[in-house]
C-alpha cells in the first residue's frame, strides 16, 4: 500500500536535529519503496528510528520490511565498511518481554533474550558469553516491537532505560502507537536520545479508492461503482475513516473483494458508522479467510493452510486463546503456558503422576513386602510426591534435546564423571548399613546407574543444537527431550530391579531350582518389571527427571480442552494453519495475533461466552 512515512510535527518528541543527522533533518519515504526508506534510515547519525501511528497503520509491517532489507544489504555494507565499523544484525523482539526491574539496561535483557531465543549462541566453542558479547559489542540492531502494549508506568521505565543504555554506537528501531508514545515522552520529560520519530500520512479517500480499484476486475461491477463513488464523495464517513488506515483496507479486501461478496451494505447505513463497520469486518474475517485460502500441501504455498479449517471452530479456538492470553497482560500466545488456562490442572497432573508412579513401584515391591503393603505405600507416597513434583509442570519452560554425540564426547564424560561422586558416597553408606558384601554391591550398582542416568540428563539438557526459531520446532524438541529422559529412566530402573531380582531369586531358590535357573528367572522377571514399570512409572512421575515437562503439561491441558471444544487436539497444526491464514504471526518461539485489533475483538467477545 502506498503509505508515506514522514517526520512527526511534534518537535518535543525528538532530540535536537544535530543529534539525529549530520545533514538537514528530513525523512519522507513510501512503504512501497523500502529501498529508499532503508537508505534514509541508514543515513541517520545513530540509526535510531521510532515508528509511530494509530492501530492498524502498518508499524510492525514497516519494521519487518526494514529488517528484511537491512539483512539483504548487510553483506554489501560489510564490504564497504572501514575502520573497524560494525554492521549490526537486525533482530525483531517483542518489547513486552523486557522487565526493566530485572534488567535495567537494554544490553542486559538483550543478552538474556538472545541466549534464550538462539540456543546455538551457548555452544561451548563460542564460550559462555557469546550472547553478551554480541549485545554489548554493538553487533545487534534490536527492533523492539509494541511499546504501546506495556502499561503507562512500564513505558516510561523503558524509555528511561533506553536513554541510560544507548551509547553513541547503539542503533535501535522501536514501534509504538502515537498517543501512547506522546504520553510516555511527556511523562518521561525527554525524548529518546538521537532518534527520529516518524508517522504515517493519512490515506485519502482517493488513495483508498485507487487501491481498492486496483484489487478489483477491470470491468468494475455496478455495486462497487456505487461504493467507490460514495467513498470519494464523502457520503459514507465510517467507510472513509476505516479506509484511511492499511488495516481497514485489508479488511475490506479480505471480506468483500477476495470472497466476491456483495458490497452494497458498505454504501448504506453500515458505511456511515465506523465502529459498527469495524466490528462487522472483524466478525467476518475468519470465515472469509477460511473460504478463500483453501488447503494446500504445496511447500511453495506459504499462505495456505495445510488442512481445511471450519470457520466456526477456528473462531472458537482463537477466541479462547485471545481471552486467556489477554491483551491487557500479554500479546504472546505461548504453547507452554496453555496449561495455566485450565483450572485445577496443577492438582490433576500431580495426582495422576503420583498415583501412576506409586502403582508401578508398589507392584514392583510386591515380592519384597507383599501386595497390600506395597500398593498402599506406593500409592500414598506417589500421591504426596506427585502433588509436590508434578504440580510444578505448568510453570516449567520448554527445553530441547541436542542428542547428537558428534563433537560432544568430552561434555558427555564430564557430565558422567561429575555425577559419580555422589553415587560412590551412597555405595559406602549402604555398605555400612547392610554389610560390606551385598550392601556395597547394591550401592555400586546404584552408583553406576545413577551416575549414568543423571549424567545423560545433564548432557542432554545442555544446549549445543542449532537455534530453535519456530513454535513448532520448539515443541518438537521439548517432546524429544521428554521422551528421551523417560526412556532413559525406564531402562535404568529396569536394570536396577532386574539385578535385584537376580540376587533375590537366585539365592532364594538356590536349593530348589539351582543357581542357573534362579539367575535366569530373576533376570527375566526383574528386567521385565523394571523396564516396563520403570518407563511407565517415570512417565507418570516426571518422565525421567530433568527440569522440562512443558510438552507433557501442554498435552494434558489440550486433552482437557478438547472435551469442552475450546481447542483442537493437534494444537500446533491448528496454530500453524492460523499463521498461514494470516490470523497469527510467529515471533521466535511464540505466536501473536497478526493484528492487535483482532486480538482485542476476540478477547472481548469470548469474555461473555459461557463454557461449552
TrEMBL record:
Would the keyword Transmembrane helix be found if you checked this record's keyword annotation?
Answer: yes
Work out whether the entry's keyword set contains Transmembrane helix: yes
List, alphabetically, the SUPFAM superfamilies matched.
P-loop containing nucleoside triphosphate hydrolases
User: What keywords would UniProt list here?
Assistant: Membrane, Transmembrane, Transmembrane helix
Gene3D superfamilies, sorted: P-loop containing nucleotide triphosphate hydrolases
| TM helices/strands, residue ranges | 347-369, 375-394, 415-434, 480-504, 510-531
Report the protein name in the record. Answer: NACHT domain-containing protein
Source organism per UniProt: Nonomuraea solani
